[in-house]
Amino acid sequence: MKANSVPAKLVEEAAKIASRLCEPDTLSIPYAHKLAVTAARNIGIQLRSSEELSYCVICRKGPFTKRGYYLHLVRVHGSLIRQMIADEIKRLEESYLGQTG
Question: Long-range contacts for 18-23 (Cβ within 8 Å, ≥24 apart)?
Fold first, then answer.
């Protein structure tokens, strides 16, 4: 999957999970494919900071509040997160095809 075909909504949802504005198990995007939602969830969990005041796990800037970290991820690292989601979708597709084929 190409990164430019990943919807902005998936990037926003991954950033919400990373910033702890929502929990991974509550992620629901009605029009998105199940693999895309799983990829956004996985990337969001990978980008989570372990502290209350978050430091960016990509560039180490911070500290951020939850909302500030979300905005930072979407505005500064949106294209990188989009690529990460595309790569995760590709990885999930390959592992799925490996299990069925």
Answer: 18/43, 18/44, 18/45, 18/46, 18/47, 18/48, 18/49, 18/57, 18/69, 18/70, 18/73, 19/54, 19/64, 19/66, 19/67, 19/69, 19/70, 19/73, 20/48, 20/54, 20/66, 21/66, 21/67, 21/70
